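Z., the sequence and structure:
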Amino acid sequence: MIKLNALQYNPICLDLKDFENYSLDSLKGISSSSEFINLEKDFKNEFNFSQIKTFSFSKEGFLGLFLNLSKDLKVKIAVSLGECEALIEGAKLYQSLGFDVEFIELKKAGNVNFDQLKNKDIEFLFLSSYVMDTFLITSLEEIKNFTNAKIISNASADFSKISDAIYFDNYKLCGYHFSGVLLFNDELFENSSLAFIDTIAIKACFESLKNRRFNIKVKNIFKEKLITKFKDDIYFFVDNNKTLPYTLHFGLKNIKAREIIRTLVFDNIFLSNGEGCSLGLSKPSRVIQAMGYDEVTSRNSISLNFSEDYGEDLIEKIVDKIFQRYRQIVILN
């Protein structure tokens, strides 16, 4: 199996017996409670935060986080349109209740429009060190030059120490719909009692993060071989020299990405056309549309990310197979 979509969907093998000590019933025992307390401590120390909690990774879950941050209607929250779908939908729901949300747009090149943050009295900023779908890097260090807002980031694919709080998408990390995990300091969010903490989600998240690996050696090889093979039929929405070093993003002309993604599954090659679309769902990339592209063009978007060490010969075979399937679909269309 050639897995080139691990950042969108990365099912890991979890031994459920290892999770028995993390059920709420088990935590009533002294030894099991100690085991969970040690897990919490290790997780917080790994990312240098003092507090941990879990939440539903859904629009309702993010709405809860927004309400947690809001002391009154005057609290100003900003959300980048380059964030995950659940967060964006949660922000819209929060806005519909009468609260103020500033949506930070993306520029045509895919980068976050920093100008919208300047001279704004924003208290909390939901902004990650990378843009979803394209994995274009966002410099949080630069952001700190012109905003005092607390930065809350998705660290599922990349962690920036500049973040004031981080959260993880368990589905992307381990392939299970466990709760999201949130790390923060002081009293930024309300702490949860043990009865309201998804202990298994914390265990699964930490295990997934420890077992995850990236490969930064093959990106340029893949890119050059794709360009050589596809010639004028390939193009790039973003500058891949500015994306996470283990990711590659591009578009193929005259084809919907989901068509080639679904076809390549039968060759055991797994690609993605964006967040939550590892098997080529029909929904176009919202991020590409936020960059100013129309819906048709946004359906051309394909993301690759690299966790394995592929040799050059194997990369050539993979690219050849992608091209073969591409030509077949174009002819049929």
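The mean pLDDT is 90. The domain at 16-211 is CATH 3.40.640.10 (Aspartate Aminotransferase; domain 2).

Let me know what you think.
H.
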